[in-house]
Design brief:
By secondary structure, this protein is mostly helical. The protein is about 80% helix and about 0% strand. The chain has helices spanning about 5-30, 45-50, 50-85, 90-100, 105-120, 125-150, 155-160, 165-180, 180-195, 200. Helix 3 packs antiparallel against helix 9 (about 180-195), helix 6 packs antiparallel against helix 9 (about 180-195) and helix 7 (about 155-160) packs antiparallel against helix 8 (about 165-180). The chain starts with a helix and ends with a helix. Belongs to the binding-protein-dependent transport system permease family. CysTW subfamily. This is ABC transporter permease.
Length: about 200
């Protein structure tokens, strides 16, 4: 007897509710509660938006996240495209080399980056901040884009070529649109964690 797809999806649904939806609901509830009385209040938001330091920090975090995401995308897409065109064994090994740093704690990777800058006698400024951000989050952008490009149906590319499209036009009109799901996944996986990453900036 065949098992319905909904039955297989049930554990994943429970996981999403418990570890994704429920924490978000709790954050929203606590945001509108008074820390002392537990009553509903807008004071938390009023205090946040009326404090220049907090507001500037928040806006700067968004700026850093946006620039980091853009830099990761500009580096990751060409890298993922080259990997998708490489031989199977070579591309898999290279992707694994990109993913390996993700298994190391981000704080350790950041400290190693700081040690590298110290060894090279380079100042730790905004440039070092973006270098550390890109180094830490680049694999999260490369992997989903690589997956999309690797699974791309090559018949669409061949059809465009048969119709006389130039390689550049094929890339922009066929390859890029079909790989957008991977691009958006990578953007979300880089942008959202970057906003809340304080360790790199502090170090």
């Amino acid at each position: 007897m065949r098992v319905k797809r909904s039955t297989w999806a049930l554990p994943y649904l429970v996981f999403l509710i418990l570890f994704v939806a429920l924490p978000l609901v709790m954050i929203a509830v606590y945001a509108f509660r008074d820390a002392q009385t537990g009553a509903f209040t807008l004071a938390n938001f009023t205090k946040f938006f009326s404090t220049p330091h907090d507001l500037n920090t928040f806006l700067y975090s968004i700026q850093v996240a946006f620039i980091n995401t853009l830099m990761c995308l500009l580096i990751a897409y060409p890298a993922a495209w080259i990997l998708s065109k490489s031989s199977f064994n070579r591309s898999k090994i290279t992707v694994m080399l990109f993913i390996l740093p993700m298994w190391i704690n981000m704080l350790i990777r950041t400290l190693a980056t700081v040690a590298l800058f110290d060894f090279l006698k380079m100042p730790l400024g905004e440039g070092a901040l973006y270098f550390g951000m890109v180094y830490n989050f680049l694999p999260f952008m490369i992997y989903p884009i690589y997956n999309s490009l690797e699974k791309l149906d090559n018949s669409y590319v061949e059809a465009a070529q048969d119709l006389g499209a130039t390689p550049w036009k094929v890339f922009w009109k066929v390859t890029v649109p079909l790989s957008l799901p991977g691009v958006w996944s990578g953007v979300l996986m880089v942008f959202m964690p970057t906003i809340s990453t304080f360790a790199i900036a502090e170090l």
